[in-house]
Amino acid sequence: MTEEVQTKDFEDVHYIKEKFESVKKEIEKVIVGQDEMIEAIIIALFSDGHILLEGYPGLGKTITIKTLSRAIDAKFQRVQFTPDLIPGDITGYELCDPETRKSTVQKGPIFTNLLLADEINRAPAKVQSALLESMQEKQVTIGRETFKLEKLFTVLATQNPIEISGTYLLPEAEVDRFMFKLRVTYPSYTEEREITERQISDREPELNVVLHPDEVISLRHFITEKIPLHKESEILKYSTRIVRATRPACAVRQHADRPNSDGDEYISNMVMYGASPRASIYLAKAARVCAFLSGSKIILPEHVHKMAYPVLRHRIILTHEAESQGIDPDDIVDTVLEKVPILEAD
Q1: Residue 167: exposed, middle, or buried by beta-carbon count in 10 A (0-12, 13-18, 19+)?
Q2: Phi/psi of residue 28, each to 5°?
Q3: How many angstroms separate the most distant Cα atoms in the chain?
Q4: CA distance linking residue 31 with residue 51, whole number of Å
Q5: What is the pTM of this model?
Q6: Domains by residue range for the chain, with CATH
Q7: Does 333 score more than 90 pLDDT?
């Protein structure tokens, strides 16, 4: 831990909020707009979660992540995913010396702090499975050896929503391991003018290092200690009920532990599969960090609501009926947040 962190010992929630704002300001020196994306990326970073970014090319996804790595003095690697990619291109491989007959390991780009998996849906299944192990286990197997990854290790993957040719559907097991799915949208007219002005000038913004990887790890522990979420916590119960309410009634009734099941007819008609228990974990963790970064010492329902969309939208599998009606997973989240009471009925 750095001397600054040891001296201040984070003091209180305001110190963490200041750090958050400092990182955000450094990114905004390069990125115009996209406030929701920037904030969500920082929240995931403090929550130890991976991110799936969906948006059209040229919206600043790659440069945002690269700028973030400079602001927190983290190692950064970018891998362009293509159909001919093999697992060794990411994880690394064994090299055998024919003279000594000894093998050495050449580590791949996955041994970093921030890994940008660009156009992740262009890689075949073997590459996806290799990435899956690193995301879940924080380790990589090369040959007969297993290597631990960095303590601060986050995968930020991008995919183009309009690309179909030459792409592979991401396995649901892998999609579920992303804490957030963020939708990156077009900038406003004013923002686009400013983006153009910045890019055609020769001025290079000076970025400052405002955090270090070991500080990020320490801040994660500090936030967890300050707001422990035990099973009797009302906000934990609330976030869990929200996740359960995304599941069809038949799935909820099968394992119901109380008479007033969260499933209803609308959800059953529109949702084929709801969010997994991993969503309950991520929603509680993200809401806790969101509360801290907003300057609050307690988690409020508004923090849960804000995090519900990026946590749940990629975990809700719609029925054909819902798709034919143009219903989006965010619409399902809207419905769930409206119907699930903040306090559990006696």
Answers
A1: middle
A2: -70, -10
A3: 75
A4: 18
A5: 0.84
A6: 29-195 (3.40.50.300), 227-339 (1.10.8.80)
A7: yes
